[in-house]
Amino acid sequence: MPVEPRWLAARLRRHLTELARLAAPVVVTRAGILTMAAVDAAMLGRTTVDQVAFHGLGVAPFVVITVTGIGLLFGTVVMTSHAVGREQYSECGPVWRRSLPYALLLGLIALVFCLFGTPFFQLTGQSPEIATGAGSVIAILGLGAPGTLLFNTTAFFLEGLRRPLPAMIIMIAANGVNVLLNWVLIFGEAGLPALGADGAALSTTIVRTAMAAALIAYVWWMRDRDRYAVRPSLGRGWWRTGARHRRIGFAAGASYGIESVAFGAISFYAGILGALALASYTLQHIVFAMIFMVALGIASATSVRVGIAHGRGDWADRALAGWTGLGLVAVLLGACGAVLLGWPEAIAAIFTSEPSLIAATAPLIALSAYALIADGGQMVVASALRGAGETWMPTAMHVVSYVCVMMPACWIFAFPMGYGALGLVAGIIVASVVSVTLLSIRFWLVARR
Questions:
Q1: How many folded domains does the chain comprise?
Q2: Domain ranges, residue 205
Q3: What three-state secondary structure class fits 164?
Q4: Quick count: other Cβ atoms within 10 Å of Cβ 10?
Q5: For residue range 352-370, what is the model confidence (pLDDT) as tens digits?
Q6: What is the DSSP letter of 403?
Q7: Helix/strand/coil for 352
Q8: Of 37, 72, 235, 315, whose CB neighbour count within 10 A is largest?
Q9: Burial of 430 (0-12, 13-18, 19+ CB in 10 A)
Q10: Which residue has the higher pLDDT, 264 or 328?
């Protein structure tokens, strides 16, 4: 049956309006996580190159661990949005309550892994000095892993309810506190010793733990908590009743983890190239990741829109929601890419005053502009597929793109071909194009059903 133009135009306007309303606060929330890392890097850039390198390498595996944990909790937003789509609001609160002990468990497991950072870095071929400095950073960050995951699963719950503003407000306040704590702990103000990269990690840990407490308190005391059955006890069967919740998360967690492991491996490649290459790649990656948060916000909003349409069985609207999200991210990230191409030196100078580091970072920032649309697009389409009930197919496509394509491509471009850190960015571009192509074909097939 042909689609009526008026129906299409009306639905498209509604999806764009809802995507903007949902995505804007989520973008700020997700970007706020990276803003902390960016502020840390910018303030450490006023110390020494070594401190930037320690922090960059220490953060890389921590991001892998926590992003995997966040993916494992992705079932929170999917199941909440499905319940909203069915107008079964009393099912929403139990989804969140089941996710809290699960998030805490995952956070404690992450902490254990983070305590073994130094020997891990030594096994990857890093110098003893870099391995020790980065190992100290990741151990401190690990203390904040439980808070990070508790905050994110609660934010997922609120996003599923189409209520992302509280997490955004808390994130904005947290970034202000982080700047103050960084000033005290990195540079040794107020009579405290100058801790450098360790001080930046400690500040982040304190702030993320406080964020989790604040957002959980908001949900616990929100006015319509009874409508969503936020407070009733789940009893002893919470683990069994959360099986489907975890199954959705297993696929998303594997996908997020695989992609993060692959990008973490690229940081190790940069470490092998030397301290300057590692520091420049770290700064470029922070800039890229900050802009990528726009895609992550649109992806989260797209999964909610697709999930609600899926919950009410509206297949045409489900397809339109997915393609609208992809089009929106292409427009916004294309504009961001133009900025990176136009002013790479000025952007690099935001993070460091060291001339050699600016000169090494600027070409990486300019080249990364070509990866933005593809990398952001693949995240949006993967989220649309999960909102439509897909689980393992996006994960398989991420394995192909980021393990089978990106990791060897980056190594070949950087070492045998001799392009150094520029080769690492070139490999990311190739993998992102492969990923968005495969996922878009898959979503087209799902949308035709």
A1: 1
A2: 5-448
A3: coil
A4: 11
A5: 888 889 999 999 999 999 9
A6: I
A7: coil
A8: 72
A9: middle
A10: 328
